[in-house]
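Service request form, structural biology core

Requester: graduate student, group of Dr. S.
Request type: structure prediction, single chain
Budget code: on file
Notes: please return the result as structure tokens.

Sequence provided:
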Amino acid sequence: MSPIQTLKPIALVTAMALASVLQPAPARAAPAETLTVAGGCFWCVESDFEQVPGVLGAVSGYTGGTVENPTYKQVTRGGTGHYEAVQITFDPDRVSRERLLHLFFRSVDPTDAGGQFCDRGDSYRTAIFVSNKEESALAAQARAEAEAQLGQKVVTPVLDAGPFYPAEAYHQDYYKGDSLVLTRFGPKRQHTAYKLYRNSCGRDARVKQLWGDAAPFAGS
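Core staff response, request fulfilled:
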């Protein structure tokens, strides 16, 4: 074998090794993020956002109050300071925080300071919970855009995030549950009871009246 022929495979191996070193490393996926919002009945908020592409999951719970590990009865009775809230986990490579905030405002009545739809009281008010200045600025921007679109005063506050307590297991994924529950409509499976509640509460009708074609989840 000639010296030239010997050098060819050596040069090829060297070039391949150099190429592997110089090849850019694959981009790392962004870590999952969370957005915590209060929009009245947490069953409905959970149902709405779990259908959004890029949302990895949503947990119903309580936040904004002073009592540790509150129960549903304590929160709805009042006095704990908690909101019914939902903690949304999402993939920022697939859906942005800005997009989720946009959808949130258009899935509630942000002009109502006394609750949401048929659910009245402090625990059913709307709110957005933030952990830093960037999140606060994005929430404030989304609120301003909602107010401009509605031409009405938006009362949804942007609040500092505190401890979030998941609600009882009974409340998680209620909207698609199959357990038999006793309701004012008689014994119903959870998913049926949820649909009856949502319709009778007037949530979708009011959101549609307020936002028109911009309402993203009417009938969820």
